[in-house]
Design goal:
The complex is a heterotrimer of chains A (257), B (369) and C (444). Chain A is an alpha/beta fold and 257 residues long. Chain A is 40% helix and 21% strand. Chain A has 8 helices and 10 strands. In chain A, a hairpin with a 4-residue loop joins β6 (97-102) and β7. The longest helix of chain A is centred in the last third of the chain and has 23 residues, at 184-206. The model of chain A has no long low-confidence stretch (mean pLDDT 89). Chain C has one domain. Chain C is built from 19 helices and 8 strands. Chain C is globular and about 70 Å long. The mean pLDDT of chain C is 94. Classes of the chains: A alpha/beta (257), B alpha/beta (369), C alpha/beta (444). Chains in contact: A-B, A-C, B-C. At the B-C interface, α4, α5, α12 and α13 of B face α7, α8, α16, α17 and α18 of C.
């Protein structure tokens, strides 16, 4: 019977994630919900949930990561997402390489050594055009459920080039295209292409070290994985819990404490 | 040179870049890709090198260049580097990065130190004032460039041959001037006109001369309609700009684009051909890359507008082009004093013209009408 | 100017002002001696800080009253100031004034003035600060004297040339351009000749005409001598950073560099840096570091982030990370050996052509590498300064080379030296923290 040994929090701007691990570092419990404005309160409630469903948290080491990490007062330590994601993915897949994490509001590329250490990283956290938000916003405007945009893109034989670098301007470009009779699916495909090209640009700036791995909420979108693979000519490896790599890494760091 | 008369467009048939390059290579010449803005055309031709200017064009995959150049470097520099990295400039033997601004300074330097392309890389620093000491320096700089070209081509250039090349270029430049001066009489819309003008960026001078002469024949008695404006900036890209201006009932009467209107070089005075070329560049149309004074540029634009009867000035800049941005406020003030309204539009040359831009243009034309 | 007004001026700037400032300095020195840092790792400020404040205040104080009494020149930070000093010019450095405004958080208002006048946010934040000050007359130093002469040297960037064209039109005074062609590899003879001729045939005659004075070779040599000595001392000051722990960090250097930039060529600057060196050697002797928990040492490349100096020092200090040196401050010292008093103008031409900012991206990388080695650095922070393209372009390749070829960890930090709106606290902190974690500070 594995023992509840450590806890990791990843409080992002979109979602809050928790992972509990046993003494071997295996995930024994995990949970995701939307981040609430009152983070401290949310963390209190989440801890109560952990107590109820996993066990007492009294002597359990806790590490927090993500933009909201400094508000997790119960954490023994706060560590950035870069380090946590690297730890998480390394344990999950068993090797290093290049991790691309596309979140709701930022994207990162992390080069991980074969010993699991962060060797290099780059982040795109200034511009929405490289994030999941870019796709979500426009899908919403076109009244397409977010879960369908990937499928529609893959199935589209045609693709429209969205040249605007800014999400806001891309929206007006798209509206005008729709008004001129362009199909929704080719437009969606073009949108995905725009996001991928930004990500590929980031990968180029640090230099790809195979194998290529993908994590983050956006992984649920098959088109992202497919297009990334096409652009980089690499197989894209996705871990079992793609959205939890940050929280998992945090839990693993807590385990060492 | 085939011409289609009658109901069809009478724009002369202009060979494309690749065609021109291939033909030149067949005659055992070399090809130099020239980044913006100024360079001694005659010197390159004298060494049997065809200079082909790289101003974009639109459509570059800048995910290659952004691995080297930060996002606050303009899309012209980004595109130039992207084309190099994706192999689109592989057909060239030399890459020339004139020292036009801080961004091109950096680009030239990283080409030499880090990227190290298969082409020979040449940089040219031109001076930032118009004094005797600047002319002397530039003449020496051109000489130094000539020495590099001599090493690359194995050619030993005589002053006589250089002077011949200078005369050839001057003939072509003269025709460029004539095209501008006669634009109002020529039966071309702006898209067609600029196709002809911009052929100067890659056609050998003697071929451009022929095309220009042909184009000058295409006169029309019809009075030109459309609101007359002048445009100042770097390049008329994306090309859709010219079409949009005409569709909105605007008409470009003259331009101050770095790729064409600012390439109106003057005749030199010296008997030494290197000094002659230096004078020709230094005393040419005022330009921000040569850091001419604000008054020089303002006066030039005012006179240009008056000469061609423009009612307003479109300031059409590439985003992040710092050298242009410093001039704008005081120049606009001066234009206003002379009753000339102006509007500023900033673009990334790889983006299609957004609605916001088109609307702004439309509003501007309405105001000055 | 009348005799009375001249007497009043002299009394104010040579007697009254300095006395008051001396008193302030004594007060501040006492305060430093009893100062207790808010945290448990920072060393107290250097005692020299009181003198730094006095010197800078005295300079700007004089500036408030100097109009009409002495010829005033506005010069770029890389500009050849020695001939001007020899002619008795009072020199203002708009970049220093902009940096000072940034450090005092006064720059936003000034930039706003320039932006309201139509100057784009995409132009250098120093230029916007200065143009805003010139247009509005507002300044945190009381009053800036109008220039009688503008001197712009392109050895730091092209931007200053456009900026000074704006000032030329605004103030309607002569502008002398010293164009120092960019050195992609080595400066060929025709470039050095060009620079020398500009100094001799353009700068000096124009400066003489405006100052209504004749150039004295003797005085010039004296000024060059002072310049050389002060620069050599500054270099020694910076080199104390090679010690472990370093007695000085770049945060100190960014403040105390003001005299070598602004008052290079004055005799007092020699005494000042001599005193600073003495204080630093004392610290070295007693093992006092800028932070007392020095674990990792990093090199800083590019300009400072003026509005974040103290908070960066603290954020990094708390992790035991110190920054003993920067390529930026080193620029004012590394050329000192090149100053040759007997070959006056020719040596000037060389010194003003060869600053690091006027040299290739490859040379900048070489400089970083040797500084990493000489200062026993564990990594490099490359400040990707949006407002400074000449310094920033090339950093992406430099970073790759540092990491891949030389095994030196390097972080690219996006910011702006003077505009806080182009800077995100959270994101910068995130990147720095991630970098520090990558360095393995906690593994010690």
């Amino acid at each position: 019977m594995s023992k509840f040994s450590a806890l990791g929090f990843d409080i992002g701007s979109t979602t809050a994630k928790i992972v509990a691990v046993d003494e071997t570092g295996k995930i024994i419990w995990q949970y995701i919900e939307n981040t609430e404005p009152k983070i401290e309160e949310q963390v209190e409630n989440l801890l109560k949930k952990v107590k109820k469903e996993v066990g007492d948290t009294l002597n359990i080491p806790v590490v927090a990561t993500g933009y909201g990490r400094n508000l997790v007062l119960q954490a023994n330590r706060k560590v950035t997402e870069i380090t946590c994601h690297a730890k998480g993915i390394f344990k999950a897949v068993g090797h290093g390489g290049t991790l691309v994490d596309i979140g709701g509001q930022d994207s990162k590329v992390i080069i991980i050594s074969d010993k699991g250490k962060v060797v290099d990283f780059t982040m795109n956290d200034k511009c929405a055009a490289g994030t999941g938000r870019f796709l979500e916003n426009t899908a919403e405007r076109m009244k397409i459920p977010v879960e369908n945009i990937g499928k529609l893109s893959i199935e589209s034989p045609d693709e429209v080039n969205i040249s605007s670098t800014c999400t806001v301007f891309a929206e007006s470009e798209i509206i005008s295209m729709l008004a001129h009779g362009e199909g929704i699916a080719p437009i969606l495909k073009g949108l995905h292409r725009g996001l991928i090209s930004r990500v590929v640009g980031m990968i180029r700036s640090v230099g790809l070290v195979p194998p290529l791995m993908l994590s983050g909420g956006v992984v649920k979108n098959d088109a992202i994985r497919k297009m990334l693979s096409e652009s980089t000519k690499q197989t894209v490896i996705v871990p079992e819990y793609p959205q939890l790599m940050g929280a998992y890494g945090a839990a693993l760091i807590a385990l060492k404490e | 040179m085939k011409k289609i008369k009658g109901d069809f467009m009478t724009i002369p048939k202009i060979p494309g870049r690749i065609e021109t390059i291939k033909k030149f290579k067949e005659s055992r010449g070399k090809i130099a890709a020239i980044f913006p803005i100024h360079y001694p055309r005659a010197l390159f031709r004298a060494y049997n090198i065809l200079p082909v200017e790289v101003w974009g064009p639109t459509g570059a995959d800048t995910s290659y260049s952004t691995a080297y150049l930060q996002p606050y470097v303009c899309s012209i520099a980004q595109s130039a580097l992207a084309y190099l990295l994706t192999g689109d400039l592989d057909i060239t033997d030399i890459v020339v990065a004139p020292h036009t601004c801080d961004s091109l300074q950096g680009l030239g330097s990283i080409l030499l130190d880090f990227i190290k392309p298969k082409q020979s890389v040449i940089t040219i620093y031109y001076p930032r004032d118009k004094r005797d000491v600047d002319v002397e320096y530039l003449a020496n700089e051109f000489k130094s460039v000539g020495e590099q070209l001599s090493k690359i081509t194995g050619i030993k250039l005589t002053d006589k041959k250089l002077k011949e090349a200078i005369i050839r270029e001057e003939e072509a430049d003269d025709l460029l001037k004539q095209l501008y001066e006669n634009k109002v009489y020529l039966d071309y819309n702006d898209t067609e006109f600029y196709k002809i003008i911009r052929a100067r960026e890659y056609l050998p001078a003697e071929e451009f001369t022929i095309i220009a002469n042909e184009a000058l024949q295409n006169k029309t008695e019809k009075e030109k309609t459309g609101i007359p404006i002048i445009v100042t900036g770097i390049v008329p890209e994306p090309k859709g700009l010219l079409k949009v201006i005409n569709e909105l009932n605007g008409r470009i009467v003259a331009d101050d684009f770095a790729c064409c209107g600012r390439k109106l070089y003057v005749k030199g005075k010296s008997s030494n051909p290197y000094k002659y070329m230096a004078e020709s560049l230094i005393f040419a149309v005022p330009d921000s890359s040569r850091e001419n004074s604000i008054n020089d540029r303002a006066n030039y634009l005012v006179n240009l507008a008056k000469k061609y009867g423009a009612k307003g000035v479109l300031i059409y800049e590439v985003k992040f082009c710092e050298m242009e941005l410093y001039y704008i406020p005081q120049v606009r003030e001066r234009l206003k004093e002379e009753g000339l309204n102006s509007v500023i539009i900033e673009v990334d040359i790889n983006d299609s013209l957004p609605h916001q831009t088109i609307t702004r243009l439309e509003a501007f034309l309405e105001v000055i009408e | 100017m009348s005799l009375i007004s001249e007497i009043k001026y002299r009394l104010t700037v040579d007697v009254v002002g300095p006395s008051y400032l001396k008193w302030e300095r004594r007060k501040m020195t006492k305060a430093i001696e009893t100062f207790k840092p808010k945290n448990d790792y920072s060393a107290p400020p250097l005692k020299i800080s009181a003198w730094t404040k006095e010197l800078i205040s005295k300079h700007y104080f004089r500036g408030r009253y100097v109009e009409g009494h002495e010829p005033v020149a506005w010069v770029t930070s890389g500009g050849p100031v020695e001939p001007l000093k020899a002619l008795g010019y009072f020199v203002i450095y708009p970049e220093n004034h902009a940096a000072l405004s940034g450090a005092r958080h006064a720059q936003l208002e000034l930039m706003g003035e320039a932006e309201d006048a139509g100057y784009s946010r995409d132009i250098c934040s120093y230029a916007r600060t200065d143009i805003g000050a010139a247009l509005s007359g507002k300044t945190p130093v009381g009053k800036l004297p109008k220039p009688d002469l503008l001197v712009a040297c392109s050895n730091i960037c092209q931007t200053v040339l456009y900026w000074y064209r704006v000032l030329e039109k605004h103030f309607n005074v002569p502008l002398v351009i010293i164009d120092t062609p960019f050195v992609y590899d080595e400066a060929p003879p025709h470039v050095i000749e060009y620079v020398q001729k500009q100094l001799e045939n353009e700068l000096i005659p124009t400066a003489e005409r405006v100052a209504k004075k004749s150039f004295s070779e003797k005085k010039f040599k004296q000024v060059v001598q002072y310049s050389k000595e002060a620069s050599e001392l500054w270099l020694e000051v910076l080199n104390t950073g090679k010690n472990r722990p370093t007695p000085i960090s770049i945060f100190d250097q960014f403040i105390h560099m003001a005299p070598i930039v602004e008052m290079r060529g004055d005799a007092i600057t020699i005494d000042y840096y001599g005193a600073m060196l003495k204080e630093l050697n004392e610290r070295v002797k007693n093992g006092i570091g800028a932070i007392n928990n020095e674990k990792k040492r990093l090199l800083w490349d590019n300009l400072p982030i003026w509005y974040k100096l103290r908070s960066f020092a603290e954020d990094l200090g708390k992790y035991g990370v110190t920054l003993p040196a920067s390529t930026y401050t080193y620029a004012w010292g590394e050329l000192a050996p090149m100053i040759d008093i007997d070959r006056g103008m020719e040596s000037m031409a060389r010194i003003y052509t060869y600053p690091i900012l006027n040299r290739s991206t490859g040379h900048k990388l070489d400089t970083m590498r040797s500084m990493v080695k000489d200062f026993s650095m564990d990594g490099v922070i490359l400040h990707s300064d949006r407002s400074c393209k000449p310094y920033s372009i090339g950093q992406m390749s430099q970073r790759s080379k540092l990491m891949d070829e030389f095994g030196v960890p390097a972080l690219l930090l996006e910011a702006d030296h003077n505009d806080p709106r182009a800077f995100s606290d959270e994101q910068a902190a995130q990147r720095m923290e991630s970098f520090i974690e990558m360095l393995g500070v906690d593994d010690e």
